[in-house]
Amino acid sequence: MRAIEACDLHWQDPHLQHIITEDHYNNYCYHDNLDGCLFDSRGWPLWHEHVPTACARVDALRSHGYPKEALRLAIAIINTLRRQQQKQLELFRGHKKELLHRGVTSVTNLEGWVGHPLDPIGTLFGTLMETGWGSDDGATLDFSGPCRKTENHVYMPLPFLEEGETFMSLAVETALIGLGQQRVMPDGLYAQEKVCRNEEQLLAKLQEVDLDEMLVKIFRKQATLLLEG
């Protein structure tokens, strides 16, 4: 089914084009946000699409020599995942008594992102870490200067990061969101083994990251969200 849907994929969506081509695209630039799904509360762009498909776009952009565009789209996807995570928690809080009575403790997704054939979390993590390692091991990038490229790392002015946030911290949070996703174990031994391998690979990558105060806060935040859910 997804393969058939992929035949109809295109890049002409105006919102998508703005996301991948503009560094300062926000809700003040766009007047079609009537239902509030195109931007978050900060006015930063979101991209609502089947997550593995959206991440496949990021991978395609990187593969064809468009690292800046891939990074812009990756950040929009991650901000969307954050928003969805928060909305799911709010939904759970609003129906907590009813859900607990039914023995449900969280929103369960039928399709897991970790172990998925398109490797969405790995794609987002790799895109951000490639940039993060290129900026003094995750130091905050200078958004005022022009974009430049040295070897495999891209230094670029991007405004869509919180104060003190880095590409590396965003990568770590993405991995934790993926690992913490409540999901059904797939059918079949091979698929289950693949999920386990991908989880182990993500955990190994996280262990390679030197923790600082910002990263510890992210671990606490995601652990709290999991416990509350």
From TrEMBL:
Top-level taxonomic group: Eukaryota
Protein name per Swiss-Prot or TrEMBL: Zinc finger SWIM domain-containing protein 6
Species per Swiss-Prot/TrEMBL record: Goodea atripinnis
